[in-house]
Amino acid sequence: MGGLKKTSGLALALVRRGLLILVSLTFAACSDSDYELSPPQILRLEAGCDVRQGCTGQSDGVSVAVRMTPHRTALKPFRIELSSDANIEAVGLSLKMRGMEMGQNRYRLLRSDTGAWQSEVTLPVCTSGRSDWIAILDLHTSNRLYRLSVPFTLDK
């Protein structure tokens, strides 16, 4: 009987250690980089920019230029393009309207042969007739997340 208690105690200790290791590995896998836990570095947009000509955002030595197709309308694809001097690994795009729920409008920009990041996007029609949008670009580098918000309008 004494041997059974020792075996049970040893098995319980091994199970506890295994669970501890499993929890540690799960936590490590879910937080693969520290920058994802910290808030993004906000890039300041130049005043009075026009996305048809190109807008620039800057912060701490990082510069980003964003440009959109000149004629943008709802329900028709248009191009958004981003270039930067930073070593960007991925670019995410969310398109929102201030104070109005317009559903999930998320895209991933892909790197072109020229090194610029681009995507074709299509936006829904706002039933209230509004056409003012905000493009929120998340730029992922190896150790930092940068965010640039660019207001723009669709043609009617």
UniProtKB/TrEMBL annotation:
<protein>
    <recommendedName>
        <fullName>Lipoprotein</fullName>
    </recommendedName>
</protein>
